[in-house]
Amino acid sequence: MSIANKTIETVLVIDDSPEILLIINELLKKDYRIKAANSGEKGLRLAREEPIPDLILLDIMMPGINGHEVCRTLKADRSTRDIPVIFLTAMHNECDEEQGLKLGAADYIGKPISGPILRARVKTHLAMKQSADYIRDKNVFLIGEVSKRARELEFIQDVTILALASVAETRDNETGNHLRRTQHYVRLLAEHLQRHPRFSLSLTRTNIELIYKSAPLHDIGKVGIPDSILLKPGRLTADEFTVMKTHAALGREAIEHAEQQMGRSAPFLTFAKEIAGSHQEKWDGSGYPEGLAGEQIPASARLMAVADVYDALVSERPYKKPMSHEAACEIITKGSGSHFDPNVVDAFLSLNLEFKNTAEHFKDNFNENALSQPLGHTT
């Protein structure tokens, strides 16, 4: 019940004495709705029935289930645990009061009952409950709003990445299924390696999700390669290949430029920059654009290197037939320690059947006329 929408509060009185029930009803009925129970069992039942009480006055010494047991049960039930309980007792032993407070009682009122004290205590605890309910409702609302905003931000991130990836896709011969396959390959590798000592810090659950989402941006830099080179049907010259190799640095720079335009860095694009800029680096340092070697190469890029090469080998293109899964595995195995991180290759070999199934599930379908279309280049 919120402060802004105040209604008549309900007080549940649980006491085996008809006289006490009558006295309390007379004292409080003018201001509150009264529900009465002459046993602990009936009191527990009424506590869960509409209207749910806003406060419970509870006798301790009752036959059957005593007040302490009733209070313990109420506080263990999610639907009644937030209802304040005030014990009614003729006992004035400090230990008894301590026990009741430990069970979650809000207060004690001694018998014989004083009308002014009863009304004052009831009013005070109901006001405190209203405030607590108001704060709890606000917290629930705020948590919902934060969750909503987080989902909106995640959606914006996803749209940003997919929009950028789609731009690259329109310039190259790579297909949307290529992007999906490499995403799934990278996730397979990352989840397999996340408990490996060399990868446990970088491959957290959150990072794996971001790497998965960023994977489609690995060739975003190809938007900066001239069509005369990118779509050339024949073998590239040495000079043309030099230009083609700039796509990795161009990709990273394009993402950095977008961040500069926003005026700040975007954490969700960190892995996109790593993957775009370093997926063509090689473990032995012979790759490009910077000649990074070993663990100088970001983990996300090392995963993408295996994923991208495997997909290039086993995928059909308008200008080539796919290589067999077994042949692709052999090539990647030979590249362990030279082209690829050996631990990533080990993970790939452990997962090779999952890779094969993923490739088949997201298989490209080229029509017969596609064989006459302009050719592009994978690097």
Describe this structure in words.
InterPro entries: CheY-like_superfamily (IPR011006), Cyclic_di-GMP/3'3'-cGAMP_PDE (IPR052020), HD/PDEase_dom (IPR003607), HD_GYP_dom (IPR037522), Sig_transdc_resp-reg_receiver (IPR001789). This is Response regulator receiver modulated metal dependent phosphohydrolase. Residues 10-126 form the Response regulatory domain. This protein has 379 residues and is an alpha/beta fold. The chain has two domains: 10-143, Rossmann fold (3-Layer(aba) Sandwich); 172-372, Hypothetical protein af1432. The chain is built from 15 helices and five strands. The protein has a five-stranded parallel beta sheet with strand order 2-1-3-4-5, sandwiched between helices. Strand 3 (55-59), helix 3 (67-76) and strand 4 form a beta-alpha-beta unit. Helix 2 runs parallel beside helix 3 (67-76). The longest helix has 57 residues, at 115-171. The two termini are 64 Å apart. 34% of the residues are buried. The model is unreliable at 1-5 and 367-377 (pLDDT under 50).
